[in-house]
Amino acid sequence: MTFEFKNCINSFKIANQKGVKTVMATLVALEGSSYRKPGVRMLFTEDGSMTGALSGGCVEKEILKQSESVFQTNQPKMMTYDGRYRLGCEGTLYILIEPFHPDEDLLLAFEKSLEERNPFQIKTAYAKQEGSNDHWGSRITFDKKDWFTFSKTAHREPEGSSTSVVFEQQLEPCFRLIIVGAEHDAVQLCLMASVLGWEVVLVTNAASPKTILDFPGGHQLLKQEPNDLQLKEVNQHTAIVLMTHSYARDLQYLIALKETQPAYIGLVGATKRGQKLTNDFIDHHPEVEEDFLEKIHGPAGLNIGAQTPQEIALSICSEILSVTRQQKPDFMKNKRAAVSR
To answer: What is residue 175's predicted lDDT score, i.e. its pLDDT?
Structure first.
């Protein structure tokens, strides 16, 4: 959701430069099932453009229509949407539409939060009743001290009025994928990961002629040898894939990663190659923690019959998702309980 919020911020900046008003729509509550869960947001501009998605596509048109009064009055508005007859999801959506015109301090604090990979919190005051209320709206903080409102004209109390309830949400840093390698398959993996909203960092040797422009969707390119490898904030929000296509270099980079704690380490190549790589790593560092070894997946990816670089990229990203979301891959039709995305 951080990636989606980032896109909304970027769209606001473009609209603001043109002098076009914007509103933010937040799914604050849900009764039953729906395509998306509470906490998702969309940005709407007065000229009709949209950024993000609250559902599969039907509710967005209704939100745009409901937004007209918010553009005129600058007053937050609550709307409900019964999806049983229009979405087929058997759920009722509660959506708050509010003016979105953050000040420069909020924008700067948000950019700093992204750069430093820090979480941030949003509180949204609302009531489960249709209508408008000046006390409804969202506040955001990046240090749990100073709160910023979504609009310069909004009330600054983070808890809203006595008749409101508050939806609280913590947004984590954008998930990050570190790709060690710069061959053509790394380009496809970078592109696939960027489509998912992941922040992609590429690592290659110091002599490589490649630049970040060679990797569409890439966030950063580091030219570092294994002995000089320096990666910041490698934690549960980070996955690493080794794909230099050099056994010796993959081993060197794996050794360089031994003190890190990513959520996932993928080894590209045949099963025997991955087993040998892991065994040789253990020979160099027999004292390595079992927890680190459990993060290693070789060959990287789910067995979906992938053959092309694009399909292999899809299988790797799918496995990373299954590991980080703690889900065992299976056909959705095999789920006994009703699926509620």
So the answer is: 95
Distance from C-alpha of 166 to C-alpha of 5, rounded to nearest angstrom:
19
What's the pTM? 0.84
Q: What angle do CA 250, 194, 233 make, to 5 degrees?
A: 60
Torsion of CA 198, 18, 46, 99, to 10 degrees: 70
Question: How many Å apart are CA 83 and CA 222, to the nearest integer?
Answer: 47
Q: Which residues pair with 151 in a beta bridge?
A: 101
- Pairwise CA distance, residues 48 & 65, whole Å: 9
Condensed to tens digits (0 to 9), the pLDDT of residues 226-262 reads 999 989 889 999 999 999 999 999 999 999 999 999 9
| pLDDT band of 331, cuts 50, 70, 90 | confident
- Please, what are the domains in the chain? 2-171 (no CATH), 176-324 (3.40.50.720)
The residues that bridge with 140 in the sheet, in sequence order, are: 122, 148
State the residue for tokens 């025997």: 272
Instruction: Quickly list DSSP for 146-214.
Output: -EEESBTTS---TT--TT-EEEEEEEPPPPEEEEE--SHHHHHHHHHHHHTT-EEEEEE-TT----GGG
- Contact (Cβ atoms closer than 8 angstroms) between residue 91 and residue 84: yes
Angle at 152 between CA 109 and CA 159, to 5 degrees: 80
Rounded to whole angstroms, how far apart are CA atoms 193 and 207?
Answer: 25
Tokens matching residue 87? 């979405």
